[in-house]
Design goal:
Blueprint (H helix, E strand, L loop, with lengths): L1 H4 L22 H15 L6 E5 L7 H4 L3 E4 L5 H11 L4 E7 H7 L1 H10 L3 E7 L34 H8 L3 E6 L3 H13 L4 E6 L3 H6 L5 H8 E3 L17 E8 L8 H14 L13 E9 L4 H15 L4 E8 L7 E9 L13 E4 L3 H5 L11 E5 L16 E5 L1 H8 L5 H13 L4 H11 L5 H21 L1
Parallel strand pairs: 1-2, 1-3, 3-4, 4-6, 5-6, 7-8, 9-12, 12-13, 13-14
Antiparallel strand pairs: 5-8, 9-11, 10-11
Helix pairs in contact: 2-8, 5-6, 6-7, 12-16, 14-15, 15-17
The chain binds iron/sulfur cluster.
Iron/sulfur cluster (SF4) binds next to helix 9.
Length: 475
């Protein structure tokens, strides 16, 4: 332990986690060190760097680095990293993991990150199989290679990580190996500088692969066959045949802005916020614990309504804890659907609403599926769309429950389009309950409204709000 504390990277390591679990002679440690060097070289504050990994030998890196890290579930490193990046855009977020985790179990997330263009680095250590569990065949296992699940030799053509990353739209794509530490460091630094999705494939030798395939030294093969190139072309993408040369280098380093970036989309919305006079200041809310449920029929914007409420609550009080869950019946328009939103001053340990304090009924399908029972807190509030709800159901709720009725769907149909009835409901709820500030909800609606529909969605909200004003006057 004392020797570890004298290690030049000791401050970047969780010494209490040592010794590591890697096989003696495994090269994953080199990659961990290269990452630390890249962070130091770029002068990044370690407190602003986050590493996320899934499951596997190389995914253990996240646990050994002394910075904020998440050891996520198998294949889910990229969506977890995405959550971190969206919540804290100022953080430098890196995913580190193996070929099985990133390209196998997490393959679809890998494609989505390239398409969506978020500024996240993916450093994928390719050891050609699932090594932590004894070396099963994985997506990059070479044709004919022996693993414990392909003892006669893999019959499948392997996935080429670089080709997939290029096709998916990663704006930086490179290949290196654990046997070329300086080249690897250069690739990592360039990837981390890129303001978009970056991918580096890092070939690493695994002893289990070597033993099973009677290869004396994969590292020796990498050193013999790999060639670092300044410029690469299509034929350099190939790498799985160890009898031929392996090209290392940068396959793509696209200028920022060549693909749509989230920040650009956001700034367009900022301009729209000015146009629609949406200006809000965050403030501490007095919400202690509130359970909100919106229920209705698929196609009525029930999930969108939940998103609007949760975004609005976060706009209003960023310190508020919140969760949103959704449940569908049959996955089709016309099926039952509900969204639960929890807002709490304390951390939330159970994300579902048990008894709503505020129940928004866009239709009565959910209540009818329960035999007409309406679940609501006895001191709670119901807002029902009288164009869509059988009002006789409301006669059964205790008299202590406040009940508001508004013809949200009729208002939307007569003035706009039926699809914005949920925002008519939002405007009404905003006025009659005052739970969330008006401009915070308008900002949330603007954020999610598809381009070109902002005006209609906000006008629907305003109409509902006006209806709430008249309702307050009348009561
Ligand atoms: S099984 Fe392979 S990849 Fe895993 S620690 Fe051992 S040598 Fe490294």
């Amino acid at each position: 332990m004392e020797a570890i504390s004298r290690h030049p990277y000791a401050e970047f390591l969780r010494i209490e986690m040592m010794p590591n679990i890697w096989c003696s002679g495994c090269r994953i440690g080199r990659i961990k060190n290269a990452f630390i060097e890249a962070v130091q070289h770029l002068g990044y504050d370690p407190d602003k760097c986050t590493v996320v990994s899934g499951i596997g030998c190389s995914s253990r890196i996240a646990g050994y680095l002394n910075l904020d890290s998440i050891h996520a579930t198998h294949g889910r490193a990229i969506p977890t990293a995405l959550g971190v990046k969206l919540a804290k855009p100022h953080l430098k977020v890196t995913v580190m993991g193996g070929d099985g985790d990133i390209l196998g179990i997490g393959g679809n997330h890998f494609l989505a990150l390239g398409r969506h263009g978020h500024d996240i680095n993916v450093f994928c250590m390719n050891n050609y199989g699932y090594s932590m569990t004894g070396f099963q065949h994985g997506p990059t296992t070479p044709l004919g290679a022996r693993t414990i699940t392909t003892s006669g030799g893999s019959p499948y053509a392997p996935v080429n990580p670089v080709a997939v990353a290029l096709a998916a739209g990663y704006t930086f794509v490179a290949r290196s190996t654990s046997s070329h530490p300086y080249h690897l460091l250069d690739c990592m630094i360039s990837a981390m500088k890129n303001a978009g999705p970056s991918f580096v494939e890092i070939l690493i030798p695994c002893m289990l692969f070597e033993r099973r395939n009677k290869i004396k030294s994969l590292e020796g093969l990498f050193l013999e066959k790999a060639i670092i190139k300044e410029t690469l072309n299509e034929k350099d993408i190939e790498q799985t045949d160890f009898t031929k040369e392996i090209s290392l280098g940068i396959f793509r380093d696209a200028p920022i802005g060549q693909r749509p970036q989230l920040s650009l989309v956001k700034s367009a919305k900022k301009g729209a916020a000015k146009k629609y006079h949406i200006d809000f200041e965050s403030r501490a809310s007095d919400i202690e614990y509130m359970q909100i449920r919106m229920e209705g029929t698929g196609g009525q914007g029930i999930v969108q309504g939940g998103k609007t409420m949760i975004n609005a609550a976060m706009n209003m009080d960023p310190n508020l804890n919140s969760t949103m869950t959704k449940r569908y019946g049959p996955e089709m328009k016309g099926g039952s659907c509900l969204t639960d939103v929890l807002l709490s001053a304390q951390p939330i340990d159970y994300p579902f609403v048990e008894v709503p304090d505020l129940l928004l009924m866009m239709s009565d399908i959910v209540a009818k599926e329960r035999g007409g029972e309406i679940i609501v807190n006895k001191n709670g509030t119901i807002v029902a769309d009288e164009s869509m709800v059988d009002l006789s159901l409301l006669e059964k709720v205790p008299s202590t429950v406040k009940v508001f009725k508004l013809p949200a769907t009729r208002i939307a149909r007569e003035n706009f389009r039926v699809v914005v009835a949920n925002n008519v409901m939002m405007g009404f709820v905003c006025k009659v309950t005052s739970i969330i500030d008006k401009n915070c909800i308008r900002a949330a609606i603007l954020k999610s409204a598809p381009p070109g529909t902002e005006e209609m969605n906000l006008a629907a909200f305003d109409k509902g709000y006006e209806f709430g004003e008249s309702c307050n006057r009348d009561s």
